[in-house]
Write a structure and sequence with these properties.
Strand content: over 45%
Distance between the termini: 66 Å
Mean pLDDT: 75
Shape: elongated
Structural class: mainly beta
Radius of gyration: 29 Å
Largest sheet: 24 strands, antiparallel
Number of helices: 7
Number of strands: 47
C-alpha cells in the first residue's frame, strides 16, 4: 500500500475488483471518481488516492484530491462509465483502504452519454444471433434496417448479411470501434462493417445519445472490448449444432400461392480460444477461431428446369425437390498481442482474417437457384495497433492506426451456362432465371484510420483533445458479360430488354480529418460535458477507363479532384445534475451537432462512370425467346452512353450545398436507482436532420424547377446537380425501464420497455432469465406498423428461447473442467403484411 505524505492526511483507494475495469479492456473515457471526506463530513484536499486494477497499464494509478476533496482516475482502457467511489477518512489516520467489488453503480453522474453495456455472461445467454448488430437489436431504443429475413436474427438465422442499427428515429449512421479504434469500410455511405468474431470480445457498448466530440457522427456508436490474455492461461470452447424451428405455414398461405415456407436445414456455431502469457507481466497473447454457418430452405424458390437441377443443383437442393437452399458459412481467425514495453507504456495489436462464403446470395421467392450468385470474401481482413501511456498521473497518451480491407466477388453459378449466361425475368409473374441480372462484380476497398489524443485529468476536471485522419480508396468492376443485357417477359411473352453500360471500372475515394476537444468538469453536484469538433471531408475520383461493349464505345474519364470539400464545426454540450448528492438520481440534458458519416458513395455522386440500365423494346422476330441485337429497339435515353446522367455526363454541384447530418440533437434524460438491482430511465430526444439529394433543374439562370427524385429520367435541356433536400425533424419521446431483481437466490428477472410517440416505429423487448439448474431466456419483439409515413412497414413478431441443462460441474468457458453445458434453443418468427 502506498503511504501518503506525512504532512498531509493520506488515503488510498484499493480497487481489487472493479467490474467495469476488469471485464472491459479497451474503450474510452471511464474510470472512478469521488469525494474524500473526514468523519465529520468535511472535504479533504491534498489526499492521495490510489487505484489498483488488472486493467491498468501500470497496475496502480494515483490522483490527488483538489480543494473540493474531489478526485478522478481515468482509465482509457475501459467502457464509457465512471463509477462513483466516495471515501471517508478518520481524522488522524494516514490511510484508508476501500475495496470495490461486485456490480457497478447503475447511474453515471459524470457523463451525459446514453450507453448500454452487454457483458460476456449476457452475450452467452441471450437466444439471438452472435453478431454485434443482433445483440444491439435486443436493447431498448435500437432497431435494425436492411438485411435478410426481415432483419430478425433468431439464433443466428439472419446473421450472414450485415444490417444497420437505428436509434430513436435518428440517421442510420453506425460507428464500429474495436478497443477505441474505428474499424469499418469506406463503401457506400461508410457505415458498412465487417463480420466481427464474437469470441474476440468481452463486452459491447452501444451509445445512442450525447456522443462525445471524439466521434464526428450521430446515430449509434458501437464499442467492442477485446479479450487480451493475461498472466494465466485460459481457454474457451463453444459448440452449437442444433437447428430447431417451428412453422406457421397454413392452408390459407398455401391457397394464396406459397408452395412451401422457409426452413432451417442446418445451423451451427463453433469457437475455440486460448490466451495467456508469452512472458509474464510483459507479453500476452490471445487467439480465437470461429466457424459458423447455416443452410436454409427458401420458400417458393425452385429450379425452373428439372434438367438444370439434375445437372447443376447441389445434393441438398435435389434432396428437397429442387427447392433453393441458401447456404452460408463464415471462418474467422483472430490473433492479438499485448506488450507491456515499460511500466507506463503499453502496445497492443490484433489481426482478424475474415472469410465469408455465401453459396446462393440473392435467393428469394420466385428466383430460380441458378440465377442467384456465390459471394466470396476470403481475402477480407482488419487490423489495428495501439499505443497507450499514462505519462504522469495527470497526462494520458493514446495513439493508434487501424485498417480494414474489404474484398468480395459475385460470379455466375454453373447452372447459368444452361441459359448461355443470359439473365431472364418475367415482370408479370415476378420470377427470375438464368444468369444473375447484375452480372459479374468485384470490389476492393481499403480504409485506414489514424488517431492520437492526450487527456489531462485533475480532481474535478478531465480535458481531452486529439486529431484523427482516415483515407479510403476503392477499385470495383462490373460486367454483365457476355450479352450486356437481361431479357424480360410478360406472362411468358417477349417484352423488353434491360441494356446496361458495362463493363465499368469505378475508382472513388475520400480523405477525412478531424480535430476535437472534450471536457468534463464537476462543480459539487453539477457536471458539465462541453465539447467542440472540426471536420474536413474531401471526395475524389481517380482516372477511369471503360472498355467497349456491343452497345458502347470505349470511354475514358480524367481524374476529378475539384469536388467540394466539406468543412464543419460541431459543438456538443451536456449537463448532469446529481439530484440528491448520493449518486442514485441524475438529471441529464444535452445538445449537439453531428455530421453524417460519409464514404465513397459521396464521390460516386459526381462520378460520370456508373452502372445504369436502359429498358428497350424487344421484338422476338425469330421466336427463339433469345434477344438478338437486331431485335432490340432504340435507347429510351437521349445520347445514350455520352451525356445522360451516369452514362458519361458529369454531375454539377450546387454552390450552397451543406454536408448532410444532424443540425441539432436535443435530449433530456432522468436516471434513478430504485435499489441495488433496479434502475429506471426516461428520456426525450429530438433530432433535426438534412440530407443530400440529386436534383434536376432547368438549364439557364432564369429558369427554375426542382424535382427531389433520386432516379428521375433525364430530360433534354436540363442538367443534373447535387444539393440539399428539406430539413427533416422528428421527435422521439422514449421511456425506458430496466429492472434486475433476484428471487429466491436462483431466479433473476430483467425487463425493459420502450414507448414511442404514435407515428414513429417502436420496439419493446422483454427478457426473462432463470439461473440455476435450468436456464430459460425468452425474448419477445414486436415492431408496430405506424400511420402515414410508416404505412409501408410490416408487423413482425419474434419469440426465441434457450434452455440449458447442467451436466457434471463444468462452466462452458472453462476448458480445464471435466464436463460441459448442453444448450437447447427454440425460436419462432412470424411476419405479416
Amino acid at each position: 500500500m502506498r503511504r501518503g505524505n506525512p504532512h498531509l492526511i493520506g488515503a488510498a483507494v484499493l480497487v481489487s475488483c472493479l467490474t467495469l475495469a476488469a471485464q472491459a479492456a479497451a474503450q474510452q473515457g471511464s474510470g472512478i471518481a469521488g469525494v474524500v471526506r473526514d468523519d465529520s463530513g468535511a472535504v479533504l484536499p491534498g489526499v492521495t488516492v490510489e487505484a489498483a486494477s488488472p486493467a491498468l497499464i501500470e497496475k496502480t494509478r494515483s490522483a490527488i484530491t483538489d480543494g473540493a476533496g474531489q478526485y478522478k482516475i481515468v482509465n482509457e482502457l475501459t467502457t464509457n462509465f465512471t463509477a462513483q467511489v466516495n471515501a471517508d477518512l478518520k481524522v488522524g489516520a494516514l490511510e484508508e483502504s476501500v475495496t470495490v467489488s461486485g456490480a457497478s453503480p447503475l447511474v453515471d453522474v459524470q457523463s451525459a452519454q446514453v450507453s448500454q453495456q452487454v457483458t460476456r455472461p449476457v452475450l452467452d445467454a441471450i437466444p439471438t444471433g452472435r453478431s454485434v448488430q443482433a445483440i444491439g437489436k435486443v436493447l431498448p431504443g435500437i432497431t435494425t434496417s436492411g438485411g435478410e429475413r426481415g432483419g430478425v436474427d433468431v439464433g443466428g438465422t439472419a446473421g450472414f448479411q450485415s444490417v444497420t442499427l437505428n436509434s430513436h428515429g435518428s440517421r442510420g449512421d453506425n460507428v464500429y470501434q474495436i478497443d477505441g479504434m474505428t474499424v469499418q469500410s469506406g463503401i457506400g455511405n461508410g457505415t458498412a462493417a465487417q463480420y466481427y468474431n464474437d469470441g474476440q470480445f468481452e463486452e459491447y457498448t452501444y451509445t445512442t445519445s450525447a456522443i462525445p466530440a471524439e466521434v464526428a457522427y450521430g446515430g449509434v456508436r458501437i464499442q467492442m472490448t477485446s479479450k487480451e490474455g493475461g498472466n494465466a492461461f485460459h481457454g474457451y470452447g463453444l459448440a452449437q449444432i442444433e437447428p430447431w424451428q417451428t412453422s406457421n405455414f397454413t392452408t390459407d398461405l398455401e391457397k394464396a400461392g406459397l408452395r412451401v415456407p422457409d426452413g432451417v436445414m442446418e445451423l451451427w456455431d463453433t469457437q475455440v480460444s486460448l490466451g495467456g502469457p508469452i512472458k509474464k507481466d510483459r507479453l500476452w497473447f490471445f487467439t480465437v477461431h470461429r466457424y459458423n454457418g447455416g443452410n436454409f430452405l427458401v420458400g417458393n424458390s425452385f429450379y425452373r428446369d428439372q434438367a438444370v437441377c439434375d445437372q447443376f443443383g447441389t445434393d441438398a437442393e435435389r434432396a428437397h425437390g429442387c427447392q433453393g437452399v441458401d447456404d452460408n458459412y463464415e471462418l474467422s481467425n483472430v490473433a492479438r498481442l499485448t506488450w507491456q514495453a515499460t511500466k507506463n507504456h503499453k502496445i497492443a495489436g490484433f489481426y482478424s482474417k475474415e472469410n465469408k462464403q455465401r453459396g446462393h446470395r440473392e435467393l428469394a421467392a420466385g428466383v430460380s437457384p441458378e440465377s442467384s450468385t456465390p459471394q466470396d470474401m476470403r481475402l477480407s481482413y482488419s487490423a489495428a495497433l495501439k499505443w497507450q501511456a499514462p505519462l504522469t498521473n495527470k497526462l494520458l497518451w493514446d495513439a493508434g492506426v487501424s485498417q480494414y480491407f474489404l474484398n468480395y466477388t459475385f460470379t455466375y453459378l454453373p447452372g447459368a451456362a444452361a441459359y448461355q449466361n443470359l439473365g431472364y425475368q418475367d415482370l408479370t409473374l415476378s420470377t427470375r432465371w438464368g444468369a444473375r441480372p447484375g452480372g459479374l462484380f468485384h470490389r476492393n476497398n481499403y480504409k485506414r484510420y489514424y488517431s492520437a489524443s492526450l487527456a489531462y485529468v485533475t480532481g474535478s476536471h478531465a480535458l481531452k483533445g486529439g486529431v484523427q485522419y482516415n483515407h479510403a480508396v476503392e477499385d470495383s468492376y462490373y460486367n454483365v458479360d457476355p450479352w450486356h443485357m437481361v431479357a424480360q417477359f410478360r406472362a411468358g411473352a417477349a417484352s423488353s430488354v434491360l441494356v446496361d453500360n458495362t463493363p465499368v471500372f469505378n475508382k472513388p475515394g475520400h480523405d477525412e480529418s478531424g480535430l476535437f476537444f472534450q471536457d468534463s468538469w464537476t462543480l459539487k453536484r453539477l457536471t458539465i460535458n462541453p465539447g467542440i469538433r472540426y471536420d474536413w471531408f474531401h471526395p475524389w475520383v481517380a482516372e477511369q477507363t471503360a472498355p467497349a461493349s456491343p452497345w458502347l464505345p470505349e470511354r475514358h474519364f480524367a481524374a476529378i479532384d475539384d469536388m467540394l470539400s466539406f468543412k464543419n464545426w460541431s459543438p456538443r454540450f451536456g449537463v448532469i445534475y446529481n439530484l440528491l448528492g448520493n449518486g442514485k438520481t441524475a438529471l441529464k440534458a444535452n445538445v449537439g451537432k453531428y455530421v453524417a458519416i460519409m464514404g465513397n458513395g459521396q464521390a460516386d455522386l459526381y462520378n460520370p462512370l456508373g452502372v445504369l440500365t436502359d429498358q428497350r423494346t424487344w421484338r422476338d422476330i425469330n421466336g427463339d425467346l433469345f434477344p438478338q441485337y437486331n431485335e432490340v429497339g432504340p435507347s429510351t435515353l437521349s445520347n445514350f452512353g455520352t451525356r445522360a446522367p451516369r452514362f458519361g455526363h458529369r454531375r454539377l454541384l450546387s454552390p450552397d450545398v451543406l454536408r448532410p447530418g444532424a443540425d441539432g440533437e436535443h435530449a433530456g434524460e432522468r436516471e434513478h436507482r430504485l435499489h441495488a438491482r433496479a434502475d429506471s430511465r426516461s428520456a426525450r430526444r429530438r433530432p433535426d436532420d438534412h440530407r443530400l439529394q440529386p436534383q434536376s433543374r432547368e438549364a439557364g439562370p432564369d429558369q427554375s424547377g426542382r424535382y427531389n427524385v433520386e432516379d428521375q429520367p433525364p430530360v433534354l435541356g436540363r442538367h443534373r446537380s447535387v444539393g440539399n433536400g428539406p430539413v427533416w425533424r422528428g421527435r422521439s419521446p422514449v421511456r425506458r425501464c430496466v429492472v434486475w431483481r433476484q428471487l429466491a437466490g436462483s431466479v433473476r428477472r430483467r425487463r425493459s420497455e420502450l414507448h414511442r410517440k404514435p407515428g414513429d416505429p417502436g420496439l419493446g423487448p422483454a427478457v426473462l432469465q432463470a439461473v440455476g439448474a435450468m436456464e430459460a431466456v425468452v425474448q419477445v419483439r414486436r415492431l408496430h406498423a405506424a400511420a402515414s409515413r410508416y404505412a409501408g412497414q410490416r408487423d413482425a413478431q419474434q419469440l426465441s428461447g434457450q434452455f440449458r441443462e447442467r451436466h457434471l460441474r463444468c462452466h462452458p468457458r472453462d476448458l480445464s473442467g471435466a464436463g460441459a453445458d448442453v444448450h437447447h434453443r427454440a425460436a419462432r418468427r412470424s411476419v405479416e403484411p
